[in-house]
Design goal:
- The complex is a heterodimer of chains A (357) and B (262).
- Chain A is of the alpha+beta class and 357 residues long.
- Chain A has two domains: 229 residues, P-loop containing nucleotide triphosphate hydrolases (Rossmann fold, 3-Layer(aba) Sandwich), CATH 3.40.50.300; 116 residues, OB fold (Dihydrolipoamide Acetyltransferase, E2P).
- Chain A is built from eight helices and 20 strands.
- In chain A, the strands form four sheets. A six-stranded mixed beta sheet of chain A has the order 6-7-8-3-9-10, with helices on both faces. A five-stranded antiparallel beta sheet of chain A has the order 13-12-11-14-20, with no helix packed on it.
- The longest helix of chain A is centred in the middle third of the chain and has 18 residues.
- Chain B has 262 residues and is mainly alpha-helical.
- In chain B, 78% of the residues lie in helices and 0% in strands.
- The two termini of chain B are 39 Å apart.
- Classes of the chains: A alpha+beta (357), B mainly alpha (262).
- The interface between A and B is medium-sized, with 24 and 18 residues.
Chain lengths: 357, 262
């Protein structure tokens, strides 16, 4: 693997008695679109702020492109930030905003005008240079903030929940545009969000943060389908979690759960307490071809039609003590009170340590 | 019943405005008196007293002095107030709260006490009574005001915009000159106009700290000692008119600043 573009070593941040970021290492490769994902208070914004130079880490070092930047102010780092509230300069027009960083870097005259025009064209605001920023809609202001940061040609572009203030349709559209722009520029993007759908749709790599530590890190597909921790399994969409204990490890794992013994393909140690995680859409009413995992009979408690699918809750196990969440095709004819049999593919089941901590 | 209430409220409002503005209106009206005394009956409009005021060397010198003192002392108070406000808003040191209190505290001290204190202090350092002393006195009374006005404008939004400028490579000086000052020029204008108004018609400190060169209010006070004269009304009207223009400037500045923040 080539040397990472951004490299954090032993970085932590303490505010009084609280550790916002626990000591962690993080490498980000050049040209990657990385999303820092976590609930509020997970330390994701602090981490971004440490890379940008707005927050000094309590411990550890930050290197960008091989150079130690830990003590450098934001303006002298090869980074640029798109802020959550955009922080546009209200007394300048659009071109003035986008050209500000270039002016500060000594780029003058025709060269500056050309690069401002390029940046504005890239975000789809080619003819907006002369407009005042107050005349723009929220989405347009967001694009100006993006163009302003892109114009200085940073090695790393930092985005601090930039889509949080936009309505849903506009947010989805901007997600698409962000990925297009990132692919065209080839610049490394580090993007902070608490929206896991947003993270999955734009990220090459998702870094899941919780309580100031990295819970999981990898491609969206892997993080969603094979979460590395209980927290990731529940934060990245819904999961059915079945607590159990490994009965037999040799020749295929068998886990005793509230729904009976489950024969799984994964490796585990005999006697270990663990949790079996299955996504709602991985449960079905008919056994899959090949190996099937029978989760037994269940009674439908509630169904919710959601357009693309039918979401339902069902009570399974002894006395119906275990609630299962299923996501069936929209055409499924199931109603509350129905008795159903629930199956899964043993290959889909993820074995996780019993407790998250 | 409801209509009666509306009438009563209107009558009360008119009475309040008459109470506030009648003395000023009388002063202005009798500055146009075509007679020797500024008392009723009003004998028809005349500009002779204005001609007399403008021909009066002492008054005109005093007017010039007042303009210089008001402009220079307000400019200094606004610049110092801005620097203090910016420094305290952006770098919260350990004693920031104490410094802030100490800066605003002079607002609670009467002008007479401040004037006497300055008189004693200037004596101690062998500095004679002069326009310069008056100007310094006006900076002393106006600095807390400019500080308080400008500090209130340096909010979180302003701080985040400055952070964005720094991120794009702007240094301290460039950030203040290109972002902070242009963003709050309306507030700076308001602070300047307000303090200029206060300096313009301030009497006690100017009276205590000046001797040969005096400001307009001190000069008018000198005229008062020789009895009532419509020329005094004319001079007073001039003072009022200029204050009025400055206050309009303050209103416009603060209104624009408030609209921008919304």
């Amino acid at each position: 693997m080539t040397a990472p573009l951004v490299s954090l070593r032993g970085v932590s941040k303490r505010y009084g008695a609280t550790l916002a970021v626990r000591p962690l290492d993080l490498d980000i490769g050049g040209g990657e679109f990385v999303v820092l994902l976590g609930p509020s208070g997970s330390g994701k914004t602090t981490l971004l702020s440490i890379v940008g130079g707005f927050t000094e880490p309590s411990t550890g070092d930050v290197a960008i492109d091989g150079a130690d930047v830990t003590r450098l102010p934001p303006g002298r780092r090869p980074t640029a930030t798109v802020f959550q509230d955009y922080a546009l300069f209200p007394h300048m027009n659009v071109a003035g905003n986008v050209g500000f960083g270039l002016a500060m870097h000594g780029v003058r005259g025709a060269e500056r005008r050309r690069r401002v025009a390029d940046a504005l064209a890239l975000v789809g605001l080619a003819d907006f240079g002369k407009r005042g920023v107050h005349q723009l809609s929220g989405g347009q202001q967001q694009r100006v903030a993006l163009a302003r940061a892109i114009a200085v040609e940073p090695k790393v572009l930092l985005l601090d929940e930039p889509l949080g203030a936009l309505d849903l349709a506009l947010r989805r559209q901007m997600q698409d545009e962000l990925t297009h722009i990132q692919k065209r520029l080839g610049t490394t993007f580090v993007h902070v969000t608490h929206d896991q759908e947003e993270a999955m749709s734009i990220a090459d790599t998702i870094v899941v943060l919780n309580h100031g530590r990295i819970e999981d890190m990898g491609p969206a597909r892997r993080v969603y389908l094979r979460p590395a921790s209980l927290f990731t399994a529940t934060f990245m969409g819904d999961s059915n979690l079945l607590e159990g204990r490994v009965e037999r490890a040799a020749g295929g794992t068998r886990v005793a759960t509230a729904l009976g013994p489950l024969a799984l393909a994964a490796e585990a140690e005999t006697g270990a307490p663990l949790t079996v995680a299955l996504r709602p859409e991985q449960l079905a009413l008919a056994p899959p071809v090949g190996n099937a995992l029978a989760l037994g009979p269940a009674r439908v408690i509630e169904t919710t039609f959601q357009g693309t699918h039918l979401r339902l809750r069902a009570a399974a196990g002894t006395n119906g003590a275990t609630t299962l969440l299923l996501r069936l095709p929209a055409s499924a004819e199931v109603h509350p009170g129905d008795e159903i049999a629930v199956y899964a593919d043993p290959a889909d089941a993820v074995l996780l340590p019993a407790t998250g901590e | 019943m409801r209509r009666l209430g509306t009438y009563a409220a209107s009558a009360y409002l008119i009475a309040a405005y008459v109470f506030i503005f009648l003395p000023v209106l009388v002063l202005v009206l009798f500055s146009f008196q075509d007679g020797l005394l500024p008392v009723p009956p009003f004998k028809g409009p005349s500009l002779r007293w204005y001609a007399e005021v403008f021909a009066n060397r002492r008054l005109m010198d005093a007017l010039g002095n007042s303009v210089v003192v008001a402009l220079v002392s307000s400019l200094i108070a606004t610049v110092l107030g801005f620097l203090a406000a910016y420094g305290l808003a952006r770098r919260r040191g350990r004693f920031a709260g104490l410094v802030q209190y100490a800066l605003v505290a002079p607002l609670t001290v009467s002008y007479l006490i401040i004037g006497l204190g300055l008189l004693v202090t200037f004596n101690l350092f062998g500095m004679p009574k002069s326009l310069l002393a008056v100007g310094i006195g006006h900076v002393v009374i106006n600095l807390p005001l400019t500080f308080a006005i400008l500090y209130s404008q340096l909010g979180d939004h302003q701080a985040r915009v400055e952070r964005a400028a720094r991120d794009l490579g702007a240094g301290d000086l460039a950030t203040v000159a290109l972002i902070t000052v242009p963003m709050m020029w309306t507030g700076l204008l308001a602070a300047f106009c307000l303090t200029a108004t206060f300096s313009w018609d301030e009497f006690i400190i100017a009276f205590l700290l000046s001797r040969f060169e005096v400001t307009l209010p001190v000069s008018i006070w000198g005229m008062l000692r020789s009895g009532l004269d419509p020329a005094l009304n004319a001079a007073g009207t001039l003072v009022f008119a200029i204050s009025f223009v400055l206050v309009i400037g303050v209103e416009l500045g603060l209104m624009r600043a408030a609209r921008k923040r919304r």
